[in-house]
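Moderator note: this is an archived Q&A kept for reference. The question asked for a predicted structure of one protein chain; the sequence and the answer are reproduced below.
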Amino acid sequence: MPPPTQYNPLAPPSHDPDGPNDDSDLEDDGTYEDEPSNPVPRTSTERRHYDRDTLEQEDEAERLLARASSKPKRKRKRIREMKMEEGGKGSDSGSSAGSAAGSEVDLSRLGDGRAGRARKSWRRRAAFLGLYAAIVAAFLGLLYGAYKATKDHDRMRTRYRPQVMSNGSSLFAPTTILLSLDGFRADFLHRNLTPTLNAFIREGVSPKYMLPSFPSVTFPNHFTLVTGLYPESHGIVGNTFWDPALQRQFHYTDAARSMQPEWWNAEPIWETAELAGVRTAIHMWLGSEAHIGAIEPMYVDKYNADEELDRKVDRILGWLDLPSHLDQPKSTNTEIRPQLLAAYVPNVDADGHKYGPNSTEIRSTIADVDRMLSKIFTGIASRNLTSIVNVVVVSDHGMATTDTARLIQLEDLLDTTLIEHIDGWPLYGLRPHDTSAVHLAELHKTLLAASLTSEHRGKFTVHLRSDMPARFHFSNNPRIAPLWLIPTTGYAIVTHKEMDVALAQTGGLVYHPRGLHGYDHEHPLMRAIFVARGPAFPHEAGSEVKVFQNTEVYGIVCDSLGIAHGKIGNNGTLSLPFKTIGLHEGSGGPGQNLDDETGEVLESDKVIPAIAPFPIFSSLPPLEDADEVASVSTEHEVFWTTDAQGSLVTGVPDAGDESGDKAEKGDQDGFEQNLNYKLGWIDWFKGKVEGAKDWVKGVFHKGGEEEETDEVSGSRRS
């Protein structure tokens, strides 16, 4: 039986489908894929339908080809496909089957080609992006290196370097006098009582005020001044406190107990200086008699509350008159001039407690201390040492007025029989007999509820040692009691033994002390002073610096002497020379005149203190690069004050304040530790980065255009 022949629907009607097929050579490459292998004869209607379907398939293939070849880079491919459709390989004029099959193959190849080119394009873009990132990173690295090199050069050039100087008769190694006026509140400068100190401000450099450390009492702050450490770090956490390890009480008025080295857990500046070979003389500074550390000061004067102010003047000037170790060979039999002289002046604090900060007596005491300073400065000038010796005048805290109307009875708050030890004053650190966490929580809850009653609301706050405000830096020491009552500034907590509050208020009794401190160290009435002048402070006369805390004083004095800070470190961040922010307004100096009870700024703040009756200083000539040390600050400072109830609130100076306009423009003042250094770096870096971004964007845009051009031109090659 002969094999079936291929059915050809395009054969003429007279053609016999069962006869011989003259086109059998097209069986392998011209057959439609969807044609059955053994077709049955079809009618003319079926053939017409078949023809129509075939034409529609070819039209669809043409549309697909037209769409795929619409892009310029596919133009050459489309031309090649059109040539194939016109009779190239795989096509025959007698059959459209080859055209359809070839179209599908070409479409598949077209898709594969597009995918391959897309992968190549992505690889090129990824490579370019990687190169772009590497260039940016390298550029920023070079930029940062250039910045660091510039800043290092500037710091080396502007850093204060103490030098040996001569007053014409003797050589002077770097010398600094540090004077502490205990209890001298910052706004005491605005009472027309301190012509010498105000003249000193106009000749030197100072902030509007200096912040003490918490708690704002004498012993902790005087040790902070000479160690640069917060009280929680140096161990003197109050004027009175209990040490659970030693099982002993520290009390500031009992020298036999308090002047023992185990209480003082830090390196004071006189030890730092002596270890560096710098001789020191300490006059009545608190802690100097405690034999702290491995080496003693060369000269130590014991505390004497009754010492006359003139004796202090003679003592300081007498030390300056001693021969220098540079003038003659060293001799164990000859007293040598000290380079660090630190003196403590307790008078203002003593009379502030006794009479109050707004009394006639305290005004007289403030004037007396100012006259003492005048004699010291006159003695310095007469020895031709004004531009040779550094003088730094500080205080440790301010003072607030007390009143029986602001007393709180401790027994009204809790059962005092539960308490074993009471630390501090006017703060109350409570150490209960039962120190378990459960009992402490109960006491805390009881006291907290009492503080929220209408009788006591706003008069005090309650804190566990573990939840003290972070800004106090008063929690990381076992000498700090586990539970604290902190009265609002101007209030005082008393026991029945000290005073019956109800009886005092009805009977018109007066509470003593009349002045008190120890409150929140950021309250306006607790503000202290810092004023400096000398070769270590080569700024324009009357310059102002930003407010800082007294933890900075230790480092400042070390820098003025040219000695390294102690090995254990400190909490200070500033370094010399200062970065100034302008000049103090007018001639009044820093600070604001405050109400003694509320802390509010008084109208008398606008009064300009009297000028000194005679000139006691001459302005230091500026260094060659001194103009690069100062800089301008146009920011308005937010300051603290109080409302009528004594609550701490904030205020902002008038918008018209133009104090910054007088400042000199210049560079950063010192090392990376400076508080303002980070801000300067950020501002500088932002500007450089913006410029770098613009440059890199231009390079990237140009590179993108080149890549696009290459793709277009590449599609027209071959």
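Archived answer notes: Residues 164-229+266-400+528-669 form a domain with the Alkaline Phosphatase, subunit A fold (CATH 3.40.720.10).
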